[in-house]
Specification:
Blueprint lengths: L1 H4 L3 H8 L4 H11 L6 H30 L4 H13 L4
Length: 88
């Protein structure tokens, strides 16, 4: 990822979003009294994949906004709004 983004900071930001889905999915399995099984673990892996894809989109959108002249905070907020907007 460092080669793709030509930066060490962007992959670091993306990787920081990955630990959160695992405890969340384990907590939901506990709340719903579901056992750990192959389908539930595959769902956890898929949840981490979705979180990774979302993080990559946010970083790319924020970098595009920074190229257009926004500061880092405004670019991050704009990227979050743009990434969460429904596509048509």
């Amino acid at each position: 990822m460092a080669v793709n983004f030509q930066s060490w900071m962007d992959p670091f930001i993306i990787l920081m979003a990955l630990p959160e889905p695992w405890p969340a999915s384990c907590g939901l399995l506990f709340l719903t009294q579901t056992t750990f099984s192959v389908p539930s673990l595959m769902g956890s892996i898929m949840c981490i994949g979705v979180a990774t894809a979302n993080s990559i989109l946010l970083v790319v959108f924020a970098n595009d906004q920074r190229v257009e002249g926004l500061d880092a905070r405004s670019a991050a907020l704009s990227a979050a709004i743009r990434a969460s907007a429904p596509s048509s």
